[in-house]
Amino acid sequence: MIKVLFLCTGNSCRSQMAEGWARHLKGDEIVAFSAGIATHGMNPHAMAVMNEAGVNIASQHSKLVDELADVEFDYVVTVCDNAAESCPTFRGNAKVVHHSFDDPPRLARDAATEEEALEHYRRVRDEIRDYVATLPESLQEAGDGE
């Protein structure tokens, strides 16, 4: 099994969704982790829309990448531009792959209703699901391209 870290700025939304999808869809191939450059706590909207899709991420928690310093990852997937720019160095031979997703809290900031806000989370949730469904093959191809 390969070890994959999904990394974003605050480890509250996108990386948590990616970890949840990887565990749900690819648990027989991938050992999934998520972390952030900072911690912003678990985003309740992200948790809600993942629950709608049948994936419970309530047992996950927001953590700093430093908390996983002893894990030797095969791949680190940065899911936001800030994380890609601030990506730390990892032990071993981890290949870093960048695949950015829109930031649902930023998109939902100006939403007129709760439902409108959740639509942003749902769209990004589904985009992350579709990306995770391509793993680990797409990671291996991205890693070979470097």
Automatic annotation (TrEMBL):
Keywords recorded for this protein, A-Z: Arsenical resistance, Transferase
Single GO MF annotation: mycothiol-arsenate ligase activity
Gene3D superfamilies named among the record's database cross-references: 3.40.50.2300
EC number: 2.8.4.2
Domain of life from the UniProt record: Bacteria
Protein name per UniProt: Arsenate-mycothiol transferase ArsC2
One Gene Ontology term from the biological process aspect of the record: response to arsenic-containing substance
SUPFAM superfamilies on file: Phosphotyrosine protein phosphatases I
Domain Phosphotyrosine protein phosphatase I residue range list: 2-138
SMART domains in the record: LMWPc
InterPro entries documented for this protein: Ptyr_pPase, Ptyr_pPase_sf
Enzyme class: transferase
